[in-house]
Sequence to fold (234 residues):
Amino acid sequence: MPEPSGLRHGPVVPQLENLLRELLREQRWKAGERLPSEVRLAEELGVGRSSVREAVRLLARDGLLDVRHGSGTFVVAPPPVTEETPDVRQLLRRARLLEAYEVRRALEVEAARLAAQRIRPEDVERLRSRLRDRQDRAGGDPAAFVDADLEFHHAIMELSGNAVLVGLFTVVRPVLREALIEMVTHEARLPDVSCAHADVLEALARGDAEAAVAATVDNLEGTMAFIKAEMADR
Fold:
């Protein structure tokens, strides 16, 4: 079991969920095996029982754990996948990603509008550097690419000058990061939204709030449409 120091400052539940998800991926507990109790996990990880309970609930929702009241929490064996049977975990992963994108759209559209009104010339070059870093990492390590992508969007959040928007994005960022890494890793036919990112930047550089909002919507809804289409095909 990892040391509690693996959890950083910030929202605990998303970090704890990601940690447990990684342990399950590494088969720390085998399929059918019972997890340690909430009390034991909380003590070993240095978190509250309520945080453990919520993280377990999210993993159970994704079909990774089976919470049996009175018996404990057990690791779910992945279902066999045939041509006639959809990959249930893939469907759950896409459904959760779609939820994350719906939240992301609400935050980023308003951030783009405000940033276009408040951006300064020196901000444009910093943002351009973030975008170059994102584009340079495309097609490489999924985690590095996702981190660079989120840095670009986080920079726009900060340029909005709205501390509440920045705070909300910071809260959802760990969940979004995990979902995006899985998407980039497993979805071979993802649409290339590099041009939409460039359009966002150029609109911000011009101080054109309407164009910045439109480019942000194009960027996010292109991926959302892809996810919905993939789910409909199953």
